[in-house]
Amino acid sequence: MTPPHRPEPPPRQLASVPGPVEIWWRRTNTLSPGRGRTLLRDAIATRYHLPTSHVTIDQDDRGNPTPLPVDGLPPLQLTAAHCAFIALAGFTADTGLDIGVDIEMLSGPPDPALLRHALSSRERSFLTGQPAPIQRAAFLRLWTAKEAVAKAIGWPLLRALVDVEITLHPQLGLHRLAENTTPRDWRLSAIQLPGLPHTITLALHGRRVL
């Protein structure tokens, strides 16, 4: 017998998020690949007091989620991510901003082969120079920052692994974007979910992010 469908819990908004962005999250009941976009729909409906049936999440020409126009809903920039049963959704009504978010978790140290393919030589040098107990956390911050930047500008992850270079010291930031070694108007921020160990990075790009 097929088990009964359990409705998803209501989305929860994070109280403190850098910049003019709202981040919502929930522990989902499914591992459906669309759980991030489903959360986007539910969070937007909650935020703007609309029925969920009135909110449709489409895809723009860069592959990013975008809402179809509907009365009562302003133009929004969207992003979403998920890791196992945790889903995240972010949006802003500031259409001058590009936004991206990523969430990851590892139960053990990253595989050396993954480090060779996922990080630049500069990033690997920084990582291997850190004490072993914090290398996993540093790797996850690098990875989620790369993916958040990729989502903000509509790049595939494989390109981001090569063309997005992150710095963690003296603070989290974007060091290189393809051939551009002085990328401007970027803000990368670490986010924490209450009571959960996941690593989350939010990327904002626009003239008003600082």
For the structure shown, list the relevant keywords.
four-stranded antiparallel sheet, 210 residues, globular, Ribosomal Protein L22, Chain A, 2 domains, alpha+beta
Number of strands: 11
**What is the CATH superfamily label of the largest domain?**
4'-phosphopantetheinyl transferase domain
In the predicted model, the low-confidence regions spanning at least 5 consecutive residues are none
* CATH-derived topology of the largest domain: Ribosomal Protein L22, Chain A
How much of the sequence is in beta strands? 25-35%
* Portion in helices: 25-40%
Overview of this protein structure:
The protein is α+β, with helices and mostly antiparallel strands. It folds into two domains: about 10-95, no CATH class; about 105-205, 4'-phosphopantetheinyl transferase domain (Ribosomal Protein L22, Chain A, Alpha-Beta Complex). Helix content is about 25%, strand content about 25%. It is built from five helices and eleven strands. It has helices at about 35-45, 110-120, 120-130, 130-155, 155-165; strands at about 10-15, 20-25, 55-60, 65, 75-85, 85-90, 100-105, 165, 175, 185-190, 200-205. A four-stranded antiparallel β-sheet has the order 1-2-6-5, with helices on one face. Helix 4 (about 130-155) crosses helix 5. The protein is globular.
